Amino acid sequence: MNRQQLSQQIIDTCLEMTRLGLNQGTAGNVSVRFDNGMLITPTGIPYDKLTPDHIVYVTHDGFFEEGKLPSSEWHFHLTCYQTREDVNAVVHNHAINCAAVSILNKPIPAIHYMVAASGATEIPCVPYATFGSHELAEYVKEGMANSKAILLQHHGLIAGEANLEKALWLAHEVEVLADLYLKTMAITPDVPVLDDAEMQKVLGKFKSYGLRVEQ
Ligand code: 13P
């Protein structure tokens, strides 16, 4: 896909993210790996005002085009691509249930087999650091090394996948898991989880399971 097409796909992903109730206003950001760097949403522009010309190219070493300002979170987007070869698209949002679990500073444990969609047995919550900081990108690096989806303490969610549709799919699934976790925690603090042997079995099945959309 060329830059124009990928830029339009980024915008479509942002609009769909809001439509699905995963985000609001100018919160969140979306990127896709491109030409040894990435294409990413600009900072602070409402998604419904975006045109492909607003999307910013950032090189692998963090340079961007004159006259354009990438998302304030460009550091951690770049870090995701540097950390995982299997990730070509990254979605970040402040989805309500994910943000709520992140405020409690808890990982989402193996409460449901779909946790394995992250490629891990639990969805970690990485420590708080100021938005847009190198420190936050360092925490993201550690979290993404183990899981394609992570919670950011007092902030929200990052999901990385092979393409934009899969990244958004994963973000949506994790929001459902966060909702389930909060609902079950409201009934008991000791929420039952699947054991490690079962999760390893499910992780094996996920190598050939998940959203079947290739781009
Ligand atoms: P940007 O508009 O700079 O992408 O910021 C939104 C956000 O969610 C920061 O974490």
UniProtKB/TrEMBL annotation:
<feature type="site" description="Plays a key role in the stabilization of the transition state and positioning the aldehyde component">
    <location>
        <position position="209"/>
    </location>
</feature>
<keyword id="KW-0054">Arabinose catabolism</keyword>
<dbReference type="InterPro" id="IPR036409">
    <property type="entry name" value="Aldolase_II/adducin_N_sf"/>
</dbReference>
<dbReference type="Pfam" id="PF00596">
    <property type="entry name" value="Aldolase_II"/>
</dbReference>
<dbReference type="InterPro" id="IPR004782">
    <property type="entry name" value="FucA"/>
</dbReference>
<feature type="binding site">
    <location>
        <position position="73"/>
    </location>
    <ligand>
        <name>Zn(2+)</name>
    </ligand>
</feature>
<protein>
    <recommendedName>
        <fullName>L-fuculose phosphate aldolase</fullName>
        <ecNumber>4.1.2.17</ecNumber>
    </recommendedName>
</protein>
<feature type="active site" description="Proton donor/acceptor">
    <location>
        <position position="73"/>
    </location>
</feature>
<comment type="subunit">
    <text>Homotetramer.</text>
</comment>
<dbReference type="InterPro" id="IPR050197">
    <property type="entry name" value="Aldolase_class_II_sugar_metab"/>
</dbReference>
<comment type="similarity">
    <text>Belongs to the aldolase class II family. AraD/FucA subfamily.</text>
</comment>
<feature type="binding site">
    <location>
        <position position="94"/>
    </location>
    <ligand>
        <name>Zn(2+)</name>
    </ligand>
</feature>
<feature type="binding site">
    <location>
        <begin position="43"/>
        <end position="44"/>
    </location>
    <ligand>
        <name>substrate</name>
    </ligand>
</feature>
<comment type="function">
    <text>Involved in the degradation of L-fucose and D-arabinose. Catalyzes the reversible cleavage of L-fuculose 1-phosphate (Fuc1P) to yield dihydroxyacetone phosphate (DHAP) and L-lactaldehyde.</text>
</comment>
<feature type="binding site">
    <location>
        <position position="155"/>
    </location>
    <ligand>
        <name>Zn(2+)</name>
    </ligand>
</feature>
<feature type="binding site">
    <location>
        <begin position="28"/>
        <end position="29"/>
    </location>
    <ligand>
        <name>substrate</name>
    </ligand>
</feature>
<keyword id="KW-0456">Lyase</keyword>
<keyword id="KW-0294">Fucose metabolism</keyword>
<keyword id="KW-0862">Zinc</keyword>
<keyword id="KW-0119">Carbohydrate metabolism</keyword>
<comment type="pathway">
    <text>Carbohydrate degradation; L-fucose degradation; L-lactaldehyde and glycerone phosphate from L-fucose: step 3/3.</text>
</comment>
<dbReference type="InterPro" id="IPR001303">
    <property type="entry name" value="Aldolase_II/adducin_N"/>
</dbReference>
<feature type="domain" description="Class II aldolase/adducin N-terminal">
    <location>
        <begin position="8"/>
        <end position="182"/>
    </location>
</feature>
<feature type="binding site">
    <location>
        <position position="92"/>
    </location>
    <ligand>
        <name>Zn(2+)</name>
    </ligand>
</feature>
<feature type="binding site">
    <location>
        <begin position="71"/>
        <end position="72"/>
    </location>
    <ligand>
        <name>substrate</name>
    </ligand>
</feature>
<feature type="site" description="Plays a key role in the stabilization of the transition state and positioning the aldehyde component">
    <location>
        <position position="113"/>
    </location>
</feature>
<feature type="site" description="Plays a key role in the stabilization of the transition state and positioning the aldehyde component">
    <location>
        <position position="131"/>
    </location>
</feature>
<keyword id="KW-0479">Metal-binding</keyword>
<dbReference type="GO" id="GO:0008738">
    <property type="term" value="F:L-fuculose-phosphate aldolase activity"/>
</dbReference>
